[in-house]
Amino acid sequence: MMVSSPFGGGRAPGNLPRLPTPPTGWPIGSYATYREAKQAVEFLAGSEFTVSDVTIVGVDLMLVERVIGRLTWGRVLAVGAVSGAWFGSFAGLLLSLFANQAFVLQVLTGIVLGVLSGLMFAAIGHSMSRGRRDFSSASQLVAGRYDVLCQPRSAEQGRELLAKLALKPPS
């Protein structure tokens, strides 16, 4: 995966654009899921097709937020304590590198202080929300459909191959 830079110009390795650029090419297939589009491109690759001419484009993007569960005070404080413990153990480990005292004491002190500060920040943050968001969730960007585009020079061949794929019985 290549990340584009707003400071770079021209093209990246593999002749990919550096800045966000609309895709080019002719549609040779359209699929309901990314998995199906990926399987189509894998079929093209297995058929000795020039897959560097192919682009998978997600169309009709939507942000899907899946609710994981209710956000209770217990869960908020537990997450705050665990994240504080991780940060505290890291800080204690760093401090123990520069101190000539007991290694274990430094790390344990860091964990205890981390848990306390994690609890405090989690409680303050949750109480400030005043019940406006009493659930936890995970967000995902998905498309309504996935189009497979191909450069004009090989689009017809790509269409023919994908038509053969569509006629194959599922395995």
TrEMBL record:
Residues 1-20 are annotated as: Disordered. InterPro entries: GSP17M-like_dom. It comes from the Bacteria. Residues 28-114 form the General stress protein 17M-like domain. The keyword Transmembrane applies. Keywords: Membrane, Transmembrane, Transmembrane helix. The chain crosses the membrane at residues 76-97, 103-124. This is General stress protein. It comes from Amycolatopsis heterodermiae.
